[in-house]
Model the fold of this input.
Amino acid sequence: MENKVRTRYAPSPTGFMHIGNLRTALYEYLISKSLGGKFILRIEDTDQCRHIEGAQEVIYSTLKQVGLTYDEGPDIGGNFGPYVQSQRKDIYLKYAQRLIEEKKAYHCFCDKERLESLKSSENCLGYGGYDRHCRYCDNSLMDSMLKSGKPYVIRQKMPLDGSTEFTDEVYGEIIVENKELQDQILIKADGLPTYNFANVIDDHLMGITHIVRGCEYLSSAPKYNLLYEAFGWEIPKYIHLPLIMGKNEDGSLSKLSKRHGSVSFEDLVREGYLPEAIVNCIALLGWCPSDNREIFSLSDLVKKFSIDRISKSPSTFDYDKLNWFNGEYIRSKEDDHLLCLFTPYIKKAVSRSNIDYLKIVQTIKNRVTKLTQIPDMIDFIETLPKYDINLFVNKKSKTNLENSLLVLKKAKERLLSLNTWCHESIYDLLIDMAKEMQIKNGTLMWPIRVAVSGKLVTPGGAVEILDILGKDESINRINLAIEILTKFEEKNL
RNA sequence: GGCUCGUUGGUCAAACGGUUAAGACACUGGCCUCUCACGCCGGUAAUACGGGUUCGAUUCCCGUACGAGUCACCA
Done:
């Protein structure tokens, strides 16, 4: 087989896709694809205590939504399966046994209580927690323990001195003293492998050439190497990624996690962010191209991505930046595409039948940064809110209650006789009218906009709103305003 | 606490020994304008600190401070 690049995304099925994990998946994808390689999905579910129903589906669906298509995986198969670790149990045991036979690993019968008691004693210092008790037990005792059926774990014999070093593609030379490493557990008492062990076995068996992961694993990387060495396997390239941090309530920073709010992909989508905006945003957290470009489609990223431009320092996830990306993506889309995206949100606020959603889309597209803002933005279309009469007064537009009433009466007459109700004709009519009355456009438009929206701030101007509402509803609303203003005027005479 | 890693404006970040230290987001002034946006033009704001090396350090080395990660039969 030729020496092609292979990367893998190996999440544990937790039921939600954290954007830190998503970025790791993205970079794994980008690294392999930019080098013409394969991207593999493997589910790491060796922790039975944390089994969550439907969690794998979340992973499949997220990767699908963002376009990270994998070449091999549990649901699509491949030549290196199975791709779910719980289905590979026997494989790990076999390899652990091989190490035992070669005297590189041993059975350990120490129970949790014993390990717990070691923590408080001092004699375990320097061993990383475990005193290696069973490493030095004699063989006959071990055999009888095994026969008795006492539960055990399998631990690797770590070197007692010296150091282990490796080169990370991002962080460079990393050296760790072996005495810092405890005899790591390979197989747990339940017979399943630990994450570290399964990871190494699978990465080797699946021919993974580049191990990409968060740098929380940086200091445990030597453990992996000791395993590769024990088996005599070639050590893959390591690419550790800088962490994405989140801001805590007290202002401090820590590794982004659930408590930082909506940080899962699903949360963000639910909040009205577009998958491609999310991907674009997180792609730039820890990597940037040599030019200053910021907007990237996934395929553009594949073309531009390079490992040597991955940053070493952690970054903080910023909603402001994501908002900007999202707005950029919305504005760049075709109207009919936006119509599909906006419709569910428009329906939340507008149920009247004779409304052209496309007109709404065209009016609000430059004003939407999150899809979830849409209902509040356009709620006045459904029903005219009760509004304060003082909304008609605006200094800059030179409007007051008197001239507003005047303008509305006149506009109503003209609009009533307008045959073709469309943006252009309404616009022409009103602009001509302002010219004729020798007033600012604003002096005319402001009262109309207020009358038909009942709001101080609206997405779009009077013309757009009139167009969306249609002739009848518009005239009704203008009539209502005339009524209110007239009543007020009479009361103050 | 040990070990590992990091530190350029509020945030993302460029500059891999020589620049007036880019750019983007956010903030902000103005223009446009029927409000709000969009768009356009402008502005405030940074090399953590102290030592070296060098003709010259954001850049290389050492120390200090600060921050983070990690020290599980979790992944």
In short: The first strand of chain A starts at residue 6 and ends at 9.
